[in-house]
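Intended use. Records such as the Chloramphenicol phosphotransferase entry shown here are meant for training and evaluating sequence-to-structure methods. They are not intended to support clinical decisions.
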Amino acid sequence: MMSARAGRIILLNGASSSGKSSIGRALLPLLPDPWFFVPVDAINAMRSTVHTRVLDDTDITEMLTRTRLGYHRAVAAMASAGNDVIMDYPLSEQWRVADLLETLAEYDVTLVEVRCSPDELERRERRRGDRPIGLALSQALVYTHGEFDIVVDTTDTGPGECAEQIVRSLGALVSPKAFDRLRLRQPCERRH
């Protein structure tokens, strides 16, 4: 049995350690309808860590690309059944944006830019200890697409307050939204 409506998607985009996951968890009790928080790290955590062979750089790149393409489609599948989904996902490669624009074309996507100062990103990476130092700063591409619907800055603002800002802003958004504007900027041949 199919749902009468397509699910909505909130995509939290920002560098590693910017606070996307914390904001995603803080959004769940604030949103009036049931929402699913589906961070890309949860998909990554499902992957086996023991392999029967050593993966070279090409193998790792291919595996990560397949994982991310699968993530895009898993979110689309949830939304196709009428579920509302919060994504925690850095748009750090242009192909990710292009694939999401196509894969999520049928859904109402709200793109939230999660910003944080470089000094704070570095401090968080060091405190976490589970990310390579410099990863966040190397992800400058997460913002290069130039479009967003909502912006929050976690430098001095906690995840709860950022989540509240997002919820307050959702009702004031107008069309076309960021993903629609990005689709309009694509070359004609990509849209056919």
